[in-house]
RNA sequence: CGGGGUGUAGCGCAGUUGGUAGCGCACUACGUUCGGGACGUAGGAGUCGCGUGUUCGAGUCACGUCAUCCCGACCA
């Protein structure tokens, strides 16, 4: 096992603490006083907004439109698709009453028993049911199809254990729900969306991901196929970062959504759904951060460049003037920049603070350097400092931002690739998997084997990956023949 | 839901055999500072998670309860 991963494993013992503390210190989010819910603070939300905007653009290029559906779902809707209810029943919050009243001692409120709902309402854990109940009214003919809707919303899943960004009871996400006239078209859409997620993760988040298809046990409740993108965190564990489901005609049948096809014959609609959540923020944090704090990819950083002036009182006016010119030039180039000339914080404090916040580039405007026409530039990914001529500094910064974006992706990719192992020996696997990493192993396709691996090692089959050339072999656990290698890892 | 922690000022914590509620950071004012998380002086801030009990007296002891964190089962 690589030495650096050993070191990470050591950190992994209190990785959660490191992660939670880092998030709080970097001012991204905090745990709310309500069980398992999260307050996303302005700086954190700014990152989420950038993600939203980019994803939205990518969706719209494929014809998807945004819409909005209700938060509350009648209980009966959820029971219409058997597997779906099985999967979500255990984690639903239920609305049973619609009114409170003053208590007998008049110092508080109680639920008014007279206001009990005849049918309870479920706070959406996901919206397939209410959306397909609506689609029923929208679809009569093959000419009405496809329907390509996405909604940005919150959902609630009453998780037993929560963790900031990775698993909160309430989380923000987008969920796309499409209806199609043919199986082929729906399957095509399922793959198209997982490709978009992978592209977004790599090009914008600089998080390399492995695409694949889930095993039957890990599949979304009610889906025929679940495609996933799996990212590797710095402690070698996997994080499922996005999913796209081919739902077949399950929801079409459950909600009786039929249309007349070209042959004038009734047919059930074909469905897909796909989503990514604020968990992506967790992926971002856990992929790039170091001990100084966050490292944000320039394409998603709310502040891409921070300018910090250093000088004595009478020099500040001159520095402000110099800074203003650079700020205006950078803004004109579409670069978001913050000039921090607050006089109540010393430069050293500002340096540390913006490093913690992950600002990709820092420009120090020092009176002393300026006499020689120089400024100091520091890049957050490597923490390297360089003195650069102030002439043409804007172009230099633009190139540097591009370079940082490329570099952190490369760094994450190199790390991941050096921790992917092919393994054919179960004893060796059991020993190595403890320390993290992705394992490509032959699997006989049975649930028994899957369960045994999980019980022995806590690792799970993440997916059947697409990106590797597949050959037949022998299952390392059962010794039975195997068609392909699957990706196995411990996961968040 | 099982096992283990932790609840005391905004944050991080100390508080001895039960006897006046403390420290660091942050905050406010003034001054000196300012090239890698400054310093001095003065000041503000706390129903000790909540409830019941034991006691002359409870942050401290007992019982209960709630919240939160970590480890499992569930999950994006």
Helix fraction by DSSP (H/I, runs of at least 4) = 25-40%
Mean pLDDT: 91
Please tell me how large the radius of gyration is: 26 Å
As a percent range, the share of strand residues is 25-35%
Would you kindly provide a written description of the structure presented here, covering whatever features stand out?
The chain is of the alpha+beta class. The chain has 3 domains: 3-96 and 125-288, BirA Bifunctional Protein, domain 2; 306-401, Rossmann fold, CATH 3.40.50.800; 420-489, Translation Initiation Factor IF3 (2-Layer Sandwich), CATH 3.30.110.30. The chain has 15 helices and 27 strands. The strands form 7 sheets. The protein has an 11-stranded mixed beta sheet, with helices on both faces. A hairpin with a 6-residue loop joins strand 6 and strand 7 (109-111). The structure holds one RNA strand of 76 nucleotides.
Keywords:
eleven-stranded mixed β-sheet; alpha+beta; BirA Bifunctional Protein, domain 2; Translation Initiation Factor IF3; 15 helices; Rossmann fold; 3 domains; 35% helix; RNA-binding; 492 residues
């Amino acid at each position: 096992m690589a030495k650096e991963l050993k070191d990470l494993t050591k950190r992994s013992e209190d990785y959660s603490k490191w992660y939670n503390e880092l998030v709080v210190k970097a001012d991204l989010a905090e745990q709310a006083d309500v069980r398992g819910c999260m307050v996303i603070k302005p700086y954190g939300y700014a990152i989420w907004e950038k993600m939203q905007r980019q994803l939205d653009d990518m969706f719209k290029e494929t014809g998807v439109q945004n819409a909005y559906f209700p938060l509350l779902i009648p209980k009966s809707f959820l029971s219409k698709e058997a597997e779906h209810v099985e999967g979500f029943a255990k984690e639903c919050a239920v609305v049973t009453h619609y009114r409170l009243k003053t208590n007998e001692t008049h110092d508080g409120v109680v639920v008014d028993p007279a206001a009990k709902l005849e049918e309870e309402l479920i706070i959406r854990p996901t919206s397939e049911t209410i959306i397909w109940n609506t689609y029923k009214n929208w679809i009569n003919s093959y000419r009405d199809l496809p329907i390509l809707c996405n909604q940005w919303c919150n959902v609630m899943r009453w998780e037993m254990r929560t963790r900031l960004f990775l698993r909160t009871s309430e989380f923000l996400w987008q969920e796309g729900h499409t209806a199609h006239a043919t199986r082929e078209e729906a399957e095509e859409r399922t793959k198209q969306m997982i490709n978009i997620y992978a592209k977004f993760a790599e090009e914008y988040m600089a998080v390399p991901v492995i695409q694949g298809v889930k095993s039957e046990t890990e599949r979304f409740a009610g889906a025929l196929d679940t495609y996933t993108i799996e990212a590797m965190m710095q402690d070698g564990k996997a994080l499922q970062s996005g999913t796209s489901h081919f739902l077949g005609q399950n929801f079409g049948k459950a909600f009786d959504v039929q249309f007349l096809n070209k042959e004038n014959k009734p047919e059930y609609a074909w469905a897909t759904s796909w989503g990514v959540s604020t968990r992506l923020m967790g992926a971002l944090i856990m992929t790039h951060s170091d001990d100084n704090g966050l490292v944000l990819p320039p394409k998603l950083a709310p502040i891409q460049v921070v300018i910090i002036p250093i000088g004595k009182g009478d020099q500040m006016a001159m520095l402000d003037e110099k800074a203003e010119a650079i700020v205006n030039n950078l803004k004109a180039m579409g670069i978001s920049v913050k000039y921090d000339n607050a006089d109540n914080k010393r430069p050293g404090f500002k340096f540390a603070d913006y490093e913690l916040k992950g600002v990709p580039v820092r420009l120090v405007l020092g009176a002393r350097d300026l006499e020689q026409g120089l400024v100091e530039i520091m890049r957050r990914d490597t923490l390297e400092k360089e003195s650069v001529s102030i002439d043409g500094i804007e172009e230099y910064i633009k190139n540097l931002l591009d370079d940082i974006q490329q570099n952190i992706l490369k760094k994450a990719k190199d790390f991941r690739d050096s921790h992917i192992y092919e393994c054919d020996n179960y004893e060796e696997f059991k020993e190595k998997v403890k320390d993290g990493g992705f394992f490509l192993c032959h699997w006989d396709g049975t649930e028994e084997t899957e369960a045994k691996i999980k019980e022995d090692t806590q690792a799970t089959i993440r997916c059947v990956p697409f990106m590797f050339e597949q050959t037949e072999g022998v299952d390392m656990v059962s010794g039975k023949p195997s068609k392909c290698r699957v990706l196995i890892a411990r996961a968040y």
